Structure formats: structure tokens, C-alpha cells
Amino acid sequence: MPSNRSSRLSGPTTESIYAPQYLATTIGMFILVFLVAFESMAVTTVMPLVSELLHGQRYFALAFAAPIASGMLGMVAAGEITDRWGPKFPLLISVTIFCVGLVVCGSAANMQVLITGRILQGIGGGAITVAIYVLIARAYPGHLHSKIFALFATAWVLPAMIGPWLAGLMAVHLGWRWVFTGVAVLVVVAFCGIIPVLRALGSERNEDLGPISMKRLGLAGLTGLAVISMNLLGNSRSSWSLIGLALALVVALVAIRPLLPVGTFTLRRGLPATIMTRIFVTGAFFGVEVYLPYLLRQDYQLAPDKAGLILTASALFWSVGSWLQGKLGEKVQASTCITLGAVAGAVAIATALATAIFHPPVIVLVCGWAVGGFGMGMIFPRQNVNMLALSAKDEQGFNSSAMSVADSLGNAGATAIGGVIFAMAAIGTGFISVFSFSLLLILILIIISGRTKGTATTVDY
Known about the structure:
Blueprint (H helix, E strand, L loop, with lengths): L19 H34 L6 H26 L2 H19 L4 H29 L5 H29 L4 H15 L2 H7 L12 H20 L5 H18 L14 H19 L2 H9 L3 H4 L1 H20 L5 H25 L3 H28 L6 H29 L5 H19 L13
């Protein structure tokens, strides 16, 4: 089985991602991931103000949907390029595109220009994720992968906790444009920390793979458009919208198949099953989380700030789960971490379902959802670690983009389907219906998680 247990930059005795030869790279990548995550959270806070000031309220939904589609394109493009030329070139280009998108948004005089910037942000942000995955595979030995992905989980959790608040402060005291342009400056600073390791990797070229597949790039764009359609149609009751949603889901599933390892939808053991578990876990967990503040406001009359505490508790325990799986390292198999995390997720979703039915004290839901956050912290880093461990060197980019695309599809698909279920459910049963659907997804995940063990797969380019 091809394995990435060695690194060009270290010997086998290195035990810490903070060792001198890794420190600048670790810090640079952490800040870069943190800023990409912060930007995604911050936009949610400032976009109502921005759309009002730029007189573009009718473009509000598109400002969020556009980077979803362009992100798919960025992920696949980065995967194609990294497998042929390594992570150096795509990481440089993706950071540049992301920063240009931020500057365009920060200087926009109308919503059309801002959406153009959001499209560029999506391309750059999606490509950054894939390029960093491959950089990890090339720059760190395999036994450190669980630790570096645990650190990245923290880089996503922190913005979830402070991002909206900090963005609000920036918008009030500095102006909303600084939410974009200020981040662009910090991204450049963070990237400087990664430059030494990119130089050390040297130049790469894999001529065996042939030219970049324009077909895959086209399918990525089509998948992104289908995902946008699902987002926009997911909360409608009209029959035409439901038909459109069904067609968009079919298009997404057909278009995405060549972007995933062979055997993903048939749950072939190893890498394909690992990719499929990402679809199920994002669909199950986030398909419930998006409704929890709504549930607490409607059934418990909680103010938004208090309702948001449940998400904060989940984020904190997500960090704990990520830290624990990183601490365990190779002592516990990836498939075991994924199974344990799925069980914790099932407990959380069952608690949410019980809350919707029986209305226990709020603390029950807070504790239950914290258990779910812990489970997600166990799952997500280990899925990434397993993906890299089961990837040959010339498949790391393709498989990293497949994982990122699966993440987006699971989240958007389940949220859209959940929206339809909620809208069509009988009065008073919307939350129960949606949570039951998500519970089914997480139970399927528990059943299939054992199939993530296996040997490396190959992809026909």
C-alpha cells in the first residue's frame, strides 16, 4: 500500500509539528486556514449591512451561493495541478486569487462587483484547502498528520467562536470594507511563513498523468451550479421548486461521480468508503445544526445570543475531540476514530430529536450537542489522515479535492433536502422530521465506517 510515512524535510525521529524545521510552516498554515475560516464566518455577519449599503438586497443569497460553485472549481483545479506539479505553484496561485477576491470585495462599489470578488474568493479558498492537504503529505511524516489536522480543526473552531463578533466590531469601528481588505493583508503575511518549505520541496513534474482534464473542470463547475440550485430551492413548497431540486440533486450526483475515486458510491473498501463517510457526516451533523438556533428560539423563546451558546459548546468540544485523536495518533486506527465519532454524533442527533419531541431543559440539548462536537472532532481529522495514507503520491491532489468536494456536497445536499422535509412536514413536526432524517444518515455512517480500512485505490486519468 502506498504510504506517505516519510518526509523530504525530516528524519523519522521528529515527534512534534512545532519542531524547528516545521515551526514556520505549521504557524503559517494555521494562520492561513484560520483566515479562510474567519472570512467565511465574518461574511455572514456583515453581508446584511453590505447588501443594504450597496443597494443590492436582491443579490443577498447569490453572495453566499456564488463562492460555493466557484469553490468546487477551485478544489478540482488544485487537485489536477498538484498531482502534476506539486503543491508549490497551486498554493501560490490560490492565495493570490483569494487575496484578489478579498480586495475586489473590499473595494466594491456595487453588489455585482462584490459578487465577482466572492467568486474569486471561492476559487482561491477551495484551491487553498486542497493544496495545503498535499503540502502536509509532502512536508510532514505520516505519524504527524493526525496532529496537524487536529491543529487545523482548532483553526476552524476559533473563527466560529469569535469570527461573527470580531467582524461586527470591525464593521462598526473600521467599516465593513476592512473585513475583506484587512484579511487580505494578513493572508499575505501568513503565506510568507510557508515560503521556505515550498522552496525546500523543489520543482516537480509528473508527465505520466498527461494534460489537465478540462472535462473534470467542466464537471466541477456543473456540480457547483447544481449545489447552488439546491441551496436556493431547498426551502420552497412549490411543486416546480421541488422538481427543480430533484433535478439539481440528480445532476450533482451524476456530475460529481468522475470527481471522486472509483467505487465511492458503491462503498468500495478503503479510500472510496472514506470519501463517502465525509458526505454522510457533513450531511447528518450540519443538517441538524442549522436548525438548532431556530428550535431554541421557537420552542424555548431564547434570544439569539443565548441560542448561539449551543454552537459555542459544540465548537469547544470539537477542539477537544480533535486534540484527543491527535494525541492518540497511530495507537488507534482511523476507522476506529471514525466509528467512535459517528456514535457520538448519533447520541447528539438523538438528543436533538428527543428535545424536539419531549422539550426537556435546554441544558440537555447543550450537553448532547457538545458530545456531537466531540465526535466530529474525532472524525474529520482522521478522515483526512486516512485519505492521505491511502493515496499514492500522484493521487494526493485528486483525492484531496475529492474529499473537499464530498464535504460541500454532503453539507449542501442534506441542508437542501432537510429544507424540503421541514417545509413539507405537518405543522409542529418540522424539526422532528428533519432530525429523523439526519439520524438515519448518522446510523448509516456507523454501519459503513468499518469499510474505511483498506488498500490504496487508483484513479484512471
